Amino acid sequence: MQIDAISAAYIGLAFSIEQHIEGFVDAYFGPPELKSHVKHREPAAIVADLADLRAEVRGGGYPQQRKDYLEAQLRGMETTARRLAGETIGYRDEVRACFDIEPAHTPEAAFEAANAELETLLPGKGSLAERLELWRRSFVVSPEVAELMIAVIAAEARARTSTELIAMPEGDSVEFALVSDKPWSGYNWYLGGGRSLVEINTDLPIRASGLLDLVCHEAYPGHHAEHALKEQRLYRERGWGEQAIQLINVPECVISEGIATLAADMIFGDEAYAWAAQQIYPLGGIVGDPEREARIAKAQWSLRALSGNAALLLHEQGADPEDVVQYIMRYGLRSEREARQSLRFISTPLWRTYTFTYFVGRDLLGRWIAQGDRVGRFRQLLTEQVCPSMLAA
User: Fold this and answer.
1) Does 199 map to a domain?
2) pLDDT for 186-219, tens place per residue?
3) Any idea what DSSP says for residue 205?
């Protein structure tokens, strides 16, 4: 595959940052020599080269949408390189520049309202946190049962994606594996050629009630579907080399996480919990309550922005990590173990800003697809170069 000089420079600079921050390059399936021939650059030189490349993109002959996409991506890369070069960047400014979004603190009243709704929905006696924990515990399954459930969900999700949304590239595949000692709950490792490895973290209990959303998020029509479709349509067919590499802490992550957090709703809609109760839960001897589950899940979604508040507390306000744990436990109704897992994620250098991509991505993309043909617009997100400011406009 021949790619042009701008795409080649983009790839080379991404690997230059990877030499300083392991994990910055999330996936690569382009020409191997563009990776193997990368020379070591000092961070200041990377910053200068990224600025030059941004100017070259602006003055080049690409279609405007491709220019806008690359401009946003390069600005995110440049922000990471500036921090590597020793520049002090305010946390909120870093989030803004990396992801092309406006980070904001969510008023605690929103979490209190969600918890008030949960008070009316959760059965049993005791504190709200205790009742929520009992509710969650009723869905816990062994890793062996979880693997059976995942296989059924993945098959159904792929079938629905292909018939209701968009045909997947021929021969695409997803392998699932259970792992441990990770800062995240699930992760899609895109391998190229329409193949993904999805790892699911067993550090916390596996709940049957969360598996449908998790599989759709990581596989169909979420991360795997997006990566496979963009590889095929933008890189293989058009030769757009920047689509042969996937990066962390750049605007594409907001789009990708927005797609993934909307994925289950796009193919299952209101029947998700009823389908799980009929097709999945019996594998683990679980009896579902679809209507109550749907209402509880909606209230809990309102708590997703809590992680952004926690990150602002930690990185912008300099709060003690133990106070951040207590904050997550109080408003998020999390166990101490779950709260510390959240703290681990927002404390990890590679992921310290990433938490905003989930709830900002869902809100931004959700509003945008609601303004027109939902299916048509979701297909656009799966197959076109888009950055957050395009949708916000």
Assistant:
1) yes
2) 899 999 999 999 999 998 899 999 999 999 999 9
3) -
Instruction: Quote the number of domains for the chain.
Output: 1
d(CA 203, CA 177): 13
Count of alpha carbons within 13 Å of 168, Cβ hemisphere only? 25
Q: Which of 279, 302, 257, 268 is nearest to 110 (CA)?
A: 302
Q: Is residue 154 part of a domain?
A: yes
Furthest-apart CA atoms within the chain: distance in Å: 65
* Sign of the torsion formed by the C-alpha atoms of 44, 50, 222 and 224: negative
Nearest to 300 by CA among 266, 354, 338: 338
Give the three-state DSSP class for 218.
helix
pLDDT exceeds 90 at position 109: yes
The CA distance from 233 to 393, in Å, is: 25
**Full residue range of the structural domain in which residue 194 is found:** 99-104+125-290+363-392
* Cα dihedral 163/366/388/159 (nearest 10): -20
Name residue 48's beta-bridge partners: none
**DSSP percent split of the chain into helix, strand, coil, nearest 5:** 65, 10, 25
Residue among 136, 200, 199 at smallest CA distance from 332: 136
Report the chain's C-alpha Rg in angstroms. Answer: 21
pLDDT at 159 over 90: yes
| In the predicted structure, residue 245 carries a pLDDT above the cut 90 | yes
Please compute, for residue 117, the number of CA atoms within 13 A of its CA located in the half-sphere on the CB side.
17
pLDDT score, position 195: 98
Give bridge partners of residue 174 from the DSSP assignment.
196
d(CA 242, CA 27): 11
Run of H or E including 3 = none
Separation between Cα atoms, residue 300 and residue 304, nearest integer Å: 7
Q: Assess contact for 185 and 165: CB atoms under 8 A.
A: no
Residue 230 lies in a domain: yes
Backbone angles phi, psi at 196, to 5 degrees: -135, 150
8 A C-beta contact, residue 217 and residue 223: yes
- Cα-Cα-Cα-Cα torsion 35, 184, 346, 71, nearest 10 degrees, comes to 40
In this structure, are residues 193 and 207 in contact, taking their beta carbons and an 8 Å threshold?
no
* Structure-token pair, residue 363: 């809100």
Q: Is 217 a member of any domain?
A: yes
* Cα 341 to Cα 361: distance, rounded to the nearest angstrom: 22
* Nearest of 187, 191, 206 to residue 148 by alpha carbon: 206
